[in-house]
């Protein structure tokens, strides 16, 4: 898989739908699935999931995964994400509104993910080591655009370095888990 560059506001509006964003995210993080499996994962119904899968496929964000078979009755359709992540750059006139919409949806999706983690903590599904390692924090700094870009690049490098992926190191690490890292870095001016 490779990262796409989402270059138009229409694609951003497509991704601004919460269920579509959650479907793509689940296929990326949890792996290929049928619409029924996705419906269970996302606590929705198969009809909605199927509809949004077809729409996402038309726009090249998901595709069928025939390597997973057709099931015992030959009717299952497996789906997978086409890309590891979604990127976008300057969207031009009208693009800021679409970008803001997709960012609002993304924050809501990540909030659900964080809430799910804390519900699992309450149900004692995570070890104390994982509970200590999980973190949320915020920092305020004064910098330039160039230095912020450099900071973000360094954070991304460290994230890639920490990823043991599908290597034999991951297999040897019995306590390895999938970890979601969300980074926000925006300039701020007081209102008024």
Automatic annotation (TrEMBL):
It comes from the Bacteria. Pfam families: HTH_20 (PF12840). This is Helix-turn-helix domain-containing protein. It comes from Paractinoplanes rhizophilus. InterPro entries: ArsR-like_HTH, HTH_ArsR_DNA-bd_dom, WH-like_DNA-bd_sf, WH_DNA-bd_sf. SUPFAM superfamilies: Winged helix' DNA-binding domain. CDD domains: HTH_ARSR. Residues 10-107 form the HTH arsR-type domain. Gene3D superfamilies: Winged helix-like DNA-binding domain superfamily/Winged helix DNA-binding domain.
